[in-house]
Design goal:
- Strands 1, 2, 3, 4, 5, 6 and 7 form a 7-stranded antiparallel beta sheet that branches.
- It is globular and about 45 Å long.
- The protein is α+β, with helices and mostly antiparallel strands and 141 residues long.
- The chain is built from 2 helices and 7 strands, in the order αβββββββα.
- The longest helix is centred in the first third of the chain and has 14 residues.
């Protein structure tokens, strides 16, 4: 009976991710006027220190690109999510994707496509969307 009770207490932590807001940006201060919006979230319960300078973290980004804009010339607005499990080299400022899944809707919903073209040792450019996730991950080490 004690084992069942313990399992019931642990189950929510095993099944549900706690996504924390990391960073958001857009091409306009007024969200109504924005044609491109991206928001990043991380699940810090997946944080793992691999070595002195390397850490791993699961994160995702929601992206909205409004129709007929410089980012999306088509007549359809695109909304999608990308979930990435990555290893960050905090010393050399690099990111290596260990897994990546695209979702057809925001908040990791809709049809999923597991990507095989994973980026290896991508250089983190300062003051970019990726640098915000990198900074969050590396600040935890």
């Amino acid at each position: 009976m004690k084992k069942i009770l313990l399992l019931l207490l642990l189950l929510p932590n095993l099944c549900f991710s706690a996504w924390d807001y990391v960073y958001g940006s857009s091409d306009a201060k007024d969200p109504i006027k924005a044609t491109y919006v991206v928001t990043y979230y991380a699940d810090f319960s997946t944080f793992k220190k691999i070595s002195k300078d390397k850490v791993r973290l699961l994160y995702y980004g929601d992206t909205v690109m409004k129709a007929n804009s410089k980012y999306n010339p088509s007549d359809r607005t695109f909304m999608f999510s990308v979930k990435i499990y990555a290893e960050f080299d905090c010393k050399y400022e690099l990111e290596t994707e260990l897994s990546k899944t695209h979702y057809m809707n925001l908040e990791l919903k809709g049809e999923q496509t597991v990507m095989k073209d994973l980026e290896k040792n991508r250089i983190i450019t300062p003051k970019t969307n990726q640098s915000a996730v990198f900074d969050s991950a590396c600040s935890k080490r």
